[in-house]
Predict the 3D structure of the following.
Amino acid sequence: MNTSAVAGQKRVVFSGLVLPYLLLAPQLIITVVFFFWPAAQALWQSTQMQDAFGIGSEFVGLENFTTLFSTPEYLASFRLTAAFSTAVAVSGLVIALLLAVMANRVIRAATAYKTLLIWPYAVAPAIAAVLWLFLFSPAVGILALALRHVGVDWNHLLNGDQAFLLVVITSVWKQVSYNFLFFLAGLQSIPRSLLEAAAIDGAGPWRRFRTIVFPLLSPTTFFLLVVNVIYAFFDTFAVIDAATQGGPGGQTAVLVYKVYQDGFKGLDFGSSAAQSVVLMLIVTVLTVMQFRFIDRRVQY
Amino acid sequence: MRIRLHFRQYVLGLAGAVAVASAAPALAATEIQLWHAMTGALNERIVGLTEEFNKSQSDYHVNPVYKGSYPEALNAGIAAFRAGTAPHILQVFEVGTATMMNAKGAIKPVEVMMKEAGEPFDRTAYVPAVAGYYATANGQLASFPFNSSTPVFYYNKDAFAKAGLDPEAPPKTWTELAVAAAKLKSSGQRCGYTTTWPSWIQLETFSAWHNVEYATKNNGFGGLDARLKINSPLHVRHIENLANLSKQGLFTYGGRGNAAVSRFFSGECAMLTESSSGYANIKKNATFKFGIASLPYYPDVAGAPQNTIIGGASLWVFANKTAPEYKGVAKFFSYLSKPEVQAKWHQETGYLPVTTAAYDLTRKSGFYKQNPGTDVSVEQMIVKITDKSRGVRLGFLPQIRDVTEEELENVWAGKQTAKQGLDRAVQRGDELLTRFERGNR
């Protein structure tokens, strides 16, 4: 085992093949068992048409996929998912950054502010959804009643746009805390001396933010962008299930909700598996694009 | 200090050993696993039922395990079957019936099991509309009818009195309902009528109640090649009627599932169609006098009203268990069928009595007189059934319900006409039925 110090970092080089693989094994086994194996199963299942108990199954090739792409509701779900993910990721990041910048400037009772802002992350998605659902319930919700007083007829049970807004608000509210934590940590790691030097040079707060803070935050922002897109794609189904169940008229049935609906509730495993494969491909492509195009602008 | 602790542990250990030894005869009993989806008071009741059964004999021990919501319990059962560790008994909601019925080799039909176990079983003891729902093509009971409910009509008597309507004369027809809703509205009521479970009540039960087909092939009882018929003139007329009432502010859409029930007990809506099993909840929450009546119907439709169809769940028995285990399951089902056990379950939960004997016993006990309206559900069901009113036996029924609800929502929102919505529901539903047929060939 050679140990050499390179640019202040300790780099450990292992000789031989056994030890490094042995050390990697736990992670590799977990990846294979919990990712590659299920992914392979999904791929296989997407080519089958079978009953729920797996007693009779038939190989149908790509038919599950062709059926999906000839269904107008599925194609509509694509547009919906794109709009939903963009809304959730962008507003989640912007609001969290704003809150982090403000919390970073607070000196008195800073811990109290931070605790309050982190709180929503501890709430389970379904509970978060029910909470907002109560606030906006057309029959008894406080916010719905308040909106009625100012002339807005809130009824997300029939109004698709309002239902969309409701699930976006709930999903963003859930995720802002997570983003906030990372942004705050990022902000606190920016050397004060840089900002002070800029201030002495006469740079105002906005200019300091734009030219120093934001570029130094770019690795955090990039990481959060990837995490938030994945969150919007995969983790929001509990919110949607509790708040709108994909309704009204399928106007909040994003791709992951349809996977859950058809596979878990409907027991149509073939179609559900095909949808998972499509979703997996989309996220892979998105992640690759993010790393190829946005990663170049990130300064580490 | 340390020694004393040790001593205490020793005593505790000894006490534990004695307890285990005294419980040993119970452990020797054949263990029967029952996976269910009952929560709250219903969970307590099911635990109570199994405890009473376990105490009544010493050969078998039924162990109830809560497995989550209905879809979750069904998924757990399927996953366990695939892994070779299926429970003996699984509670499955009524829309999962076709899935279970078509799982050839995975389930043991209840009537066959009872016969093989040598346990007396009389098919005719069960209420026809309940037993018919779970019967195979040759009339045998495939699953044990356990907790069945059916939609009934609830109305706010105080609101009726305020609007100048007779609180003892609820609307019988849809025309009368519209008139009552208009009067309620002009008396200041914000919402006249709302409904829970739109697809179950406004389409499935509606079809049986008017003795029209929901799907071909006797609503799917006759084979997997059944296709939807819910865009018939009568269905279109009904949905159109509701859409018009919605436009006039007399009908308020309250959401899927039983979401609309809160609008009734908050006093916002004065009339409601909801499951009979919603009774306990409404009784607990309503701060006004309420009445229960039969569902409204269209009197000019020949054969209406026929009978309503059931919701709730039944108990399925998995295949490939040992003979002693089946004997235990059979004994347990016999116990559940006892009139006094059934009657108690019915009275405490609002579910239907599944045997006519349990109904007679409840009637004689004076329960219906003390709790007016609780017999409406039974009255709606106990009549003879027809091929069109036996129930709906379709594959992917949970998804078909989602599809019809999506289309109905677009009708209420004014985005499409009743005809367009139902045509679309039939087209999308038929695609699902085709898939189910292929997967279960």
